[in-house]
Structure formats: structure tokens, C-alpha cells
Design goal:
Radius of gyration of chain B: 13 Å
Radius of gyration of chain A: 26 Å
Strand content of chain A: 15-25%
Number of strands of chain B: 5
Shape of chain A: globular
Distance between the termini of chain B: 14 Å
Oligomer: heterodimer
Helix content of chain A: 40-55%
Distance between the termini of chain A: 72 Å
Number of helices of chain A: 11
Largest interface: A-B, 27 and 24 residues
Number of helices of chain B: 5
Largest sheet of chain B: 5 strands, parallel
Number of strands of chain A: 12
Order of helices and strands of chain A: HHEHHEEHEEHEEHEHHEEHEHE
Structural class of chain A: alpha+beta
Strand order of the largest sheet of chain A: 2-4-5-7-6
Order of helices and strands of chain B: EHEHEHEHEH
Structural class of chain B: alpha/beta
Largest sheet of chain A: 5 strands, mixed
Strand order of the largest sheet of chain B: 2-1-3-4-5
Strand content of chain B: 15-25%
């Protein structure tokens, strides 16, 4: 009787498990449909917008004939609202991707100071138009942290464009970056119209446009700050705002400093999770430059950094698959190949190895000393089940030299 | 100097009409095709100086057209500008992997497109 009961119970558990799995599958499908829906809709919306935009600009550019000033003004308004709608679509797509967990950061070692300065300078033209005083303060020495630079640029663009938009003519805008013990602090502040204290707790919520100027002036999409917060969160950073109505606003972002090993492992872990969920594979290819410290000493930081960036770009352009990511540290690059089993990953490794060799050959022709690199490969679940083991397995499996191309 | 010829492969008829005006005003000769297959064959017969290429089209998508253009000795040297509304981050990556020379997303600024064309025709 006991055995019979056990087997019944087992059967029950098995059925329950099967049902759960089926429901899980159904949920995943719905999630996929939702995300496909958003991207299809955004494509379908952009196409007619493109036609409207081109039509209006044909008239504005007087290609279709003369335009009187009143018509020009009216069409100018249509044009800027087409741009506004187009930005809204981009923002909606962004936020839906983030919410669906489909945004995978591509962190590389970046000089955050140079990045902030570079991006903020690009806004000077806009701030000059409004006779605003734009001040940028970053440390003299490089502030190297792991960032997804595309996302960081998006965050900076959002905050700086908001500051310019919501600050009257002649106001001041300050963009500052400073390095602290465990993190870096970015502050974007302005002397603009500010946010009322009752609205402040909702500043990062979607479609909360309280601080916008009534009447004339550029309007936002109401998603910029929500996206900004999500992107900062993805970086494990914090964002906060301090503001007084009619005095100005100050946005502060902190981003943690992480060592490369942590960043590599984070990337691999999220890749493993994704692969496990889909019952799929994840392959890790490591490319390590030998004698990196010595080489860097000879070449200097900037040249070495430039060389690594070139290597990263070379590898990136050789990868044809959709979801590959490359993370770069001072002397090592890690390439994650999603849905790649060991066999298909070996082919990719061969390709990386051959593009690396021809790249280094070219560099050698330009006078660079022989650079030796090790290229390794390991795949989940074949070789290892966790991120640490996978990384260890991948490191230093096959050796290759730039000489024997 | 003869006018440079631009082939615009795009299934949206209205956009094609407008781009004909735009390209003519900028001093180019415009030829058009309304799907990927027609585009590919016109690229071979018309021998344009540059191709503007949509991605999502009937019969043959733009990536396939682009690869075919770059693989054929007749058309491999014609610069290709991808003009697409699928604004995903992968669009540039996938376009360049297919051999495209430039990418621009819809809705685009006409001037930006003309600048890209000019640069490639130099």
C-alpha cells in the first residue's frame, strides 16, 4: 500500500510539474508576443511618420514651390511635432525593452570624464542658442569605470537636454563629474524652472511632465527620466533629484566602481541565466594579450587603450550573430556567444583568431612589435555550469601568436 | 558632367514619389524599384552610382538584396545606404554585416541623407 501511495504521489507531482511547465511556456510566449508587438508597432508607426516628415520638408525646402511665411511657420510646427512623435516612439520602444529585461548592458572600460566632457560639449550649440552658460567640470586625470557607453550617452543626453530645455534664456547649466572612493558622482544642475516639492517624489515616473513650461517651447515625451532611472539601475547606480520651483534642479547619479573580474562574471552569469531559461547554450571566448603590462609600459596607456578598442571593433565586426557581446578589460576581451554550442562557437573562435592575426599583421607592418595573444573557449552547459568555472575553463586553452598568421 | 544615378528600392509608394522630387532637386537622376527582387535586377541593368535600400519589403528583404549586391561582380562596388524604420540597435550591425556602406533610420532628416549620399559619391 505504501508503495502504491508513493507512486500515486509521484504521479501527482509529475502532472503538476508538467502543468507548471506548460503555463511557464505559455507565459514566455505571451511575453515574446508583447515584445514583438511593440517592435512591430514602432516600425509601422515610423514608416508613415517618415513619409509625413519628408513631405513636410519637401514643402519647407521649397522644392514644391514658393511658401508664404505663415505657411512656413505652420509647417514648421508640424515638422517639430513629427520629431516629437518620433522621439516618443523611440522612448516607448526603449522602456518596453528595459521592462521586458531585454536590455543587456555592454560594459567596457571607459574614461567617464572624457565621455562626459565630450557629450556635454556637443550640447554647447543648443545652450548658446538660449544664451545659457554651460559649465563642464571633470577631473584632469582619466576616471576609468565599467560602463555601457551607449547607455551612458543616452543618460547624459537626457539630463543635459532637459536642463537646457527647462532653463530660461541666460540661465546656467553645470555638468560635473567627480571620482570618489567606491563610486563616481555625476551632477547635472541648472538654474531653470525647477520642480515643485509635491511633484519631486514622482520625478522619475512615466509621463509626469510637471516642470514643463506652459505655452511655447520644446516639450518632452514624459519618458526621458523614467528611462534614465532604469538605465542607471541597470548599472547598479543610484539617481536622485533636488529641486526648488523657479530656482533650478540638480540631478545626481552615482555609478559604482567595479573590477574587471566582477564585470566579466556578471556578464557571464546573466548569459547563463538566459541560456538556462531557454534550455540553450552559451559560449565564452576569451582573448588575452600576453605581457600586457610590459606592452602598455612601452606604448603608453592611450596607445594601448586605442589598440584594444581597435581589437574590440575588429572582433565585433567579425561577429555576425545577433546577440553577441564583447566586454573589454585592460588586457583581456570576453566574447559571449548566445545560443552557441561548442561546435559553432569553435568556428567563431577560429574566425576571431584569424581576424586578430591579420589585424596584428597589419599593425606589425605599421611598426608595432609582435603581440602575442591567447584565445580560449568554453561552453555552457558542456564545460561548466557556473560563471567562475566557465571563465576559468575558457582562459588559456589554445595559444596563438601573431607571427604565424 | 552627367547626373549621378541613384536607385531607390522602397515599397512605400508615397515615399518613393517624394524622394524622386528630393533627389531631382539635389541634382540626381532617380530610378526606383518597389520590392527587393525588382531592386536587385534594376541594380544590374540600370548600373546606378548608389543604392538607397529599404529593409522590410515584399519578395526579398533588404539585407538579402544588400548581400546579393555585394556578392555580384557587376554591383559589388555600388555604395549602399540602408534606409529603414526598424530602429533596433541591431539595424546598423546587421546592415554593415550585410555589406551596407551607410545606415539611416526613418524618419530621417533629408539633409542628413543627402550628406551621406554626397560623401559616398565622392
Amino acid at each position: 500500500v505504501e508503495a502504491w501511495c508513493l507512486s500515486k504521489a509521484n504521479e501527482g507531482i509529475r502532472l503538476l510539474y508538467k502543468e507548471l511547465e506548460e503555463k511557464n511556456e505559455a507565459l514566455k510566449k505571451i511575453d515574446q508576443l508583447k515584445s514583438d508587438f511593440v517592435s512591430t508597432v514602432s516600425h509601422e508607426l515610423r514608416t508613415p511618420l517618415a513619409i509625413m516628415k519628408e513631405g513636410v520638408s519637401l514643402v519647407l525646402d521649397k522644392i514644391t514651390g514658393e511658401v508664404n511665411p505663415q505657411q512656413e511657420k505652420t509647417l514648421g510646427m508640424v515638422y517639430s511635432n513629427i520629431n516629437r512623435l518620433s522621439q516618443l516612439i523611440t522612448d516607448l520602444l526603449d522602456i518596453s525593452k528595459i521592462e521586458a529585461g531585454r536590455v543587456q548592458l555592454k560594459k567596457t572600460l571607459v574614461d567617464a570624464g572624457a565621455l562626459v566632457k565630450d557629450i556635454a560639449e556637443k550640447w554647447r550649440l543648443e545652450s548658446d542658442k538660449k544664451k545659457q552658460k554651460l559649465q563642464i567640470a571633470v577631473p584632469q586625470k582619466p576616471v576609468r569605470i565599467y560602463l555601457d557607453s551607449d547607455k551612458a550617452i543616452q543618460v547624459l543626453n537626457n539630463l543635459i537636454s532637459n536642463a537646457i530645455k527647462y532653463t530660461p534664456e541666460g540661465g546656467a547649466i553645470n555638468v560635473g563629474l567627480s571620482e570618489r572612493q567606491d563610486d563616481v558622482l555625476l551632477v547635472v544642475s541648472d538654474s531653470g524652472i525647477g520642480i515643485a516639492s509635491e511633484d519631486l517624489p514622482h520625478a522619475f515616473e512615466r509621463f509626469r511632465q510637471f516642470s514643463r513650461a506652459p505655452g511655447a517651447g520644446a516639450k518632452g515625451t514624459g519618458l526621458g527620466l523614467a528611462i534614465t532611472r532604469e538605465l542607471v539601475n541597470l548599472h547598479e547606480g543610484t539617481i536622485s533629484v533636488d529641486s526648488k520651483l523657479n530656482k533650478g534642479s540638480s540631478f545626481s547619479i552615482t555609478l559604482p566602481k567595479m573590477d574587471s573580474e566582477t564585470v566579466f562574471k556578471q556578464h557571464i552569469l546573466s548569459g547563463i541565466k538566459e541560456a538556462a531559461e531557454k534550455n540553450s547554450h552559451l559560449a565564452v571566448v576569451t582573448v588575452k594579450i600576453s605581457d600586457f603590462a610590459k606592452l602598455q609600459k612601452e606604448l603608453g596607456y592611450d596607445r594601448m587603450h586605442g589598440l584594444l578598442k581597435e581589437i574590440e571593433d575588429t572582433i565585433n565586426s567579425s561577429l555576425r550573430r545577433k546577440a553577441d557581446t564583447v566586454v573589454r578589460d585592460t588586457g583581456e576581451l570576453i566574447v559571449l556567444l548566445f545560443d552557441a554550442n561548442k561546435k559553432s562557437a569553435s568556428l567563431v573562435r577560429e574566425r576571431i583568431s584569424s581576424v586578430m592575426q591579420s589585424f596584428l599583421e597589419k599593425k606589425r607592418a605599421q611598426g608595432l612589435e609582435a603581440v602575442v595573444f591567447n584565445i580560449g573557449l568554453a561552453a555552457y552547459p558542456e564545460d561548466a555550469a557556473d560563471e567562475g568555472d566557465l571563465l576559468n575553463k575558457a582562459r588559456g586553452v589554445v595559444k596563438a601568436k601573431s607571427e604565424n598568421a | 558632367m552627367p547626373k549621378k544615378k541613384i536607385l531607390f528600392i522602397e515599397d512605400e509608394v508615397d515615399l518613393v514619389e517624394m524622394m524622386k522630387l528630393r533627389l531631382a532637386a539635389a541634382g540626381y537622376e532617380a530610378v526606383v524599384a518597389f520590392d527587393g527582387e525588382e531592386g536587385l535586377s534594376k541594380a544590374k541593368t540600370e548600373k546606378p552610382d548608389l543604392v538607397l535600400l529599404d529593409i522590410i519589403m515584399p519578395k526579398m528583404d533588404g539585407f538579402t538584396v544588400c548581400r546579393a549586391l555585394k556578392e555580384s561582380p557587376v554591383t559589388e562596388n555600388i555604395p549602399v545606404v540602408v534606409v529603414s524604420a526598424s530602429g533596433g540597435k541591431n539595424l546598423p550591425q546587421r546592415s554593415f554585416a550585410a555589406g551596407a556602406d551607410e545606415v539611416i533610420t526613418k524618419p530621417f532628416e533629408a539633409q542628413e541623407l543627402l550628406d551621406k549620399i554626397k560623401k559616398l559619391l565622392k
